[in-house]
Design goal:
By secondary structure, the protein is an alpha/beta fold. Among the domains are: 80 residues, Arc Repressor Mutant, subunit A (Orthogonal Bundle); 89 residues, 3-Layer(aba) Sandwich (D-Maltodextrin-Binding Protein, domain 2), CATH 3.40.190. 43% of the residues lie in helices and 23% in strands. It has nine helices and ten strands. The chain has an eight-stranded mixed β-sheet, with helices on both faces. Strand 7, helix 7 and strand 8 form a beta-alpha-beta unit. It is globular. The two termini are 37 Å apart.
């Protein structure tokens, strides 16, 4: 009897292909690059063929690898579907889901695989908007669930992650007055930026009002202004030395839901999101 394929090996292979490297796959799967390499070798030993070619330029699929990628994705999809059939309180059908616009690129890269892997019977319809615009839509049941930024001094929904918000950039006018950019939208980031400027009692010149965090970040990177930004979106930027605060501001994000789901379903969904978003 031929050996059965280990789905864990298939998952590792697909992750290497998706992330385009052993090191990135190791980080995502919380393994060492050596362990990833050993799993790929085991898979190739079972198949009797090489599935990946390694070079200084990275990795590429062999003809066998192309076949394995296609059928491996189908195997994993069937695996998730089977788990969904047997789990209790499984989400099914259409699901309208909201997420903060400014986190869209990072969230969508993780949300879509989460739905495919954890909720294979769900057909998600994703709405990207500000947290303060998503919240009333969930309350009115026009959205089933949403990830939102949690308002200060409130306990809302089921916690997913928390991150620091800080001032970044070094732009100043000729006299040393900080050049500042803030968001135009009604949101926590704008409120807290204005609050910290007031608390610091530092003279500043408001030189930019932007509709998105991405636009603020670009302006900081270009040296046009300083801005109050989530640290997860500031790779390559330096913190402001002029507008540094005594105590950090930590912004939490949580999962909220409407009336459609019972009390057991939403905590379970939040737990799966929390685990996947932390990878």
């Amino acid at each position: 009897m031929p050996p059965a394929l280990d789905l864990e090996l298939i998952k590792t292979f697909l992750t290497v292909v998706e992330t385009r490297g052993f090191k990135a796959a190791a980080e995502q799967l919380h393994k060492t690059p050596a362990a990833i390499s050993q799993q790929i070798k085991r898979l190739e030993d079972i198949l009797g063929q090489r599935v990946l070619e390694r070079s200084n330029q990275g990795i590429s699929l062999t003809s066998a690898g192309e076949v394995l990628k296609d059928k491996g994705q189908r195997l994993m999809s069937l695996n998730y579907e089977l788990l969904g059939d047997l789990r209790e309180n499984e989400l099914t059908g259409q699901l309208s889901f909201g997420a903060p616009t400014d986190y869209a690129p990072a969230l969508l890269q993780k949300l879509l695989p989460i739905f495919q892997r954890e909720f294979p019977k769900v057909a998600p319809n994703i709405v990207l908007d500000r947290s303060r615009a998503l919240r009333p839509r969930v309350k009115a049941s026009t959205l089933d669930m949403a990830i939102v930024a949690i308002e200060p001094d409130t306990e809302e929904g089921h916690s997913l992650w928390t991150e620091e918000i800080a001032w970044f950039g070094a732009a100043v006018d000729w006299d040393g007055t900080p050049r500042v950019g803030v968001l135009t939208t009604d949101c926590i980031l704008r409120d807290q930026a204005l609050k910290t400027l007031k608390d610091l009692q530092t003279n500043h010149n408001l030189v930019l009002e932007a509709g998105t965090v991405a636009a603020l970040r670009d302006a900081v990177e270009a040296g046009f202004c300083q801005a109050f930004l989530p640290i997860s979106l500031t790779e390559g930027l330096e913190r402001s030395h002029v507008l540094s605060t005594q105590s950090p501001f930590n912004l939490g994000f949580g999962l909220i839901s409407g009336q459609r789901f019972d009390g057991d379903t939403v905590p379970s969904v939040a737990s799966k999101f929390r685990r996947a978003l932390s990878d």
